């Protein structure tokens, strides 16, 4: 007698029934139920996220159109053109070290026009920092408020 396979005709018939899917029907049902639950959970999560995004979008739009806090935040997002032009431009002269524009990551070369931010002293290419300051009011490196320092320099 071999312990590796069926020895009787009945055992052979049982093996064929298992191979044909006789006792695997329970396993198939469990897998289908798990897939249905997982799919339902994914759809439910997507629906909740979508509804939350829509609600937040409408709330922000309503606050902006009614002059609420959203409008104030949008208005104070970047620097005004007058404050931007108040920040001095100068031709870069290399001293003991070298400088790198933290926005474009290029090395600043001798003679290039740069802006030195009055709040912190960091310098950047004019094109890079102007683009940044149109949408932000802070230094890209240290996050100091550039608008207040530019306004103070403009008053002097």
From TrEMBL:
Keyword Zinc tagged: yes
Lineage: superkingdom: Eukaryota
GO molecular function, one term: ubiquitin protein ligase activity
EC number: 2.3.2.27
One Pfam family this sequence matches: zf-RING_2
Bilayer-crossing regions: 30-50
Family note: Belongs to the RING-type zinc finger family. ATL subfamily.
Stretches assigned to the RING-type domain: 101-143
UniProt-listed Gene3D superfamilies: Zinc/RING finger domain, C3HC4 (zinc finger)
InterPro entries for the chain: RING-H2_zinc_finger, Znf_RING, Znf_RING/FYVE/PHD
Keyword Transmembrane helix: yes
Catalytic activity: S-ubiquitinyl-[E2 ubiquitin-conjugating enzyme]-L-cysteine + [acceptor protein]-L-lysine = [E2 ubiquitin-conjugating enzyme]-L-cysteine + N(6)-ubiquitinyl-[acceptor protein]-L-lysine
Keyword field: Membrane, Metal-binding, Transmembrane, Transmembrane helix, Zinc, Zinc-finger
Name by which UniProt lists this protein: RING-type E3 ubiquitin transferase
């Amino acid at each position: 007698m071999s312990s590796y396979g069926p020895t009787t005709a009945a055992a052979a018939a049982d093996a064929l029934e298992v191979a044909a899917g006789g006792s695997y029907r329970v396993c198939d049902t469990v897998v289908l139920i798990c897939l249905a639950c997982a799919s339902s959970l994914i759809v439910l999560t997507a629906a909740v996220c979508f509804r939350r995004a829509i609600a937040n979008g409408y709330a922000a739009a309503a606050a902006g159109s009614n002059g609420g806090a959203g409008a104030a935040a949008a208005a104070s997002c970047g620097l005004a053109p007058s404050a931007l032009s108040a920040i001095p431009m100068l031709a870069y002269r290399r001293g003991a070290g070298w400088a790198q524009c933290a926005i474009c990551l290029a090395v600043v070369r001798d003679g290039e026009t740069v802006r030195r931010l009055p709040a912190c002293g960091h310098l950047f290419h004019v094109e890079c920092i102007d683009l940044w300051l149109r949408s932000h009011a802070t230094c890209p490196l240290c996050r100091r408020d550039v608008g207040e320092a530019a306004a103070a320099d403009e008053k002097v």
